[in-house]
Amino acid sequence: xxxxxxxxxRVAITSLLARxxxxxxxSFVPFYVYGIRYGWIGFALLTAILSVATVAGMIxxxxxxxxxxxxxxxxxxxxxxxxxxxxxxxxxGALILLLEK
Length: 101
Known about the structure:
Helix content is 74%, strand content 0%. It is an all-alpha fold and 101 residues long.
């Protein structure tokens, strides 16, 4: 078996951590593996709990965001909304093209 260099080990660990960070559902895989002993009932229960928690989290964080956005007066920017969104999307596209390796 070939020995891994410290750089490749660091890259592997970093990519695994990034995957867990940017894909929150990945962190529930161990719970599903552990729940195998409970069969389909356990699978259904875990899925129901995860679904309810996900929807509740979306509702809570969206309502908190809306409450915070109401405090900021963005009325002056409403007439430029389409242009601003277009400019932001173009900027994101340009950054992807510039930073792509």
